[in-house]
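TA notes. Do not distribute before section.
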Amino acid sequence: MDSVGLMPVLVVSGVLFTLGVIGVLTRKNALIVFMSVELMLNAVNLAFVAFSRQNASMDGHIFAIFVMAVAAAEAAVGLALVILLFRNRVTVKLDDLDRMRG
């Protein structure tokens, strides 16, 4: 079975990362912004694994596991912040969050 080359995988990774950046810069909903950050982290994981496979080492896989752990922690903390924000302000729109006090 033939494997996919490095360049198509990096193109997909770049497209995913670009979509994540566009989502972070253009969306006003906090949940969509967090999902866009997760999309960017997954794009980086894909690039790590592709380079690791190309170089026949396990370094990229190990970095990808660490990035997944950080992404899981970020998702948990981010979701907790969004829930707390919705309880206090009854909105998750980022434009409505102009003050830090409750």
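Switch to the second chain here.
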Amino acid sequence: MPKEFSRNQRVGELIQRELADIICREVSMPGLGMLTVAAVKVSPDLKFAKVYITLLGGVFTPNQVMQHLNEIAGRLRHHLSQRLTIRTTPRLQFVHDTSIEYGVKLSALIDSVAPPPLEN
């Protein structure tokens, strides 16, 4: 039975916090909009980390932003390795997280079907 907070989860949360700061300081894309590191899932052997990114606004498509982040993943990994105290720094793969957009669409759909509240 797995522990409630495994080492992978703790490492993922640490990477999430540090990467958010590193991306804020190191990524220079004018017109990027608001970028958030939503979650980080680390492989069981701690060699790979999938980084989920949410985007709000900006002039670039999510695919363009993910492509740019994956191109500079080596540089971000280097900065991350200087901040972490683990033996090996996982390889980073950036993925667009669509869960917030999906939630907004579902909420709008529910609001369009639900009857309006009764007034007293």
